[in-house]
Amino acid sequence: MQETTVDRIYHALLERIVTGDLEAGAPLRQDHIAREYETSHVPVREALLRLEARGLAISIRHKGTRVTDLEPTEIREVIEMRIALETLALTHALPQLTKTDLARATAARDACDAAETMAEWDRQDRLFHMSLLSPCAMPRLLSSIEDLHISASRHVFARLPERRQPRQDADHADLLAAVARDDLSEACSILRRHLRRVG
């Protein structure tokens, strides 16, 4: 599937917000973004609306759009919500999981382990989780999980030392092994431990 201009702008701004390149409170000026991406205001406006829907941007009347603030107190809530929703999704996904889904998750885990930047690690980490959870076939649940994962990532990047390097994640390997054995109880236990540790 070909990426649209809106998708390209949305994903680029999303990554810049998550990694802290665009800090909380930073203005998101349509004219500047349109020039940067060599496009009209229409796709920029659509991309900004998507960011607002994800809670990453806020439009203030007569002031424009800016990156939302990062509330340090929300991380505990985000972690607990991720645990509740991701274990629910995994419970429904596991019976539907195919070899193709497992292969996709394995490829994402390998790419995560091989990532040279934290931004790439984060992208692959999200892909890993969604590869395991998507077979639940609950779009609203998956959308909520994606929102929470993005929010958690913003907090992680905000706390990261400037030069932190990506690392291999043993939890991913353990989670894949439990899923491959069809051991839901162990998979959920590993997932809970993993989310508490990385959050």
User: Can you list the strand order of the major beta sheet?
Assistant: 1-2
Oligomer: single chain
Total number of beta strands: 2
H/E topology pattern: HHHEEHHHHHH
Shape designation: elongated
- Give helix % range: 55-70%
CATH architecture group name of the largest domain:
Up-down Bundle
The name of the CATH superfamily of the largest domain reads GntR ligand-binding domain-like
Major sheet? 2 strands, antiparallel
Low-confidence stretches: none
Q: Report the end-to-end length measured between terminal Cα atoms.
A: 32 Å
Pfam families: FCD, GntR
GO molecular function, one term: DNA-binding transcription factor activity
Domain HTH gntR-type: 3-70
Protein name: Carbon starvation induced regulator
Can you describe what's shown?
The chain is elongated and about 55 Å long. The longest helix has 21 residues, at 139-159. It has nine helices and two strands; from the N terminus they run H-H-H-E-E-H-H-H-H-H-H. A hairpin with a 3-residue loop joins strand 1 and strand 2 (64-67). The mean pLDDT is 91. 67% of the residues lie in helices and 4% in strands. It has helices spanning 5-18, 30-36, 41-53, 74-93, 99-114, 118-133, 139-159, 170-180, 184-198; strands at 57-60, 64-67. It has two domains: 5-67, Arc Repressor Mutant, subunit A, CATH 1.10.10; 74-198, GntR ligand-binding domain-like (Four Helix Bundle (Hemerythrin (Met), subunit A)), CATH 1.20.120. Strands 1-2 form a two-stranded antiparallel sheet. By secondary structure, the protein is mostly helical. Helix 5 packs antiparallel against helix 8 and helix 8 (170-180) packs antiparallel against helix 9 (184-198).
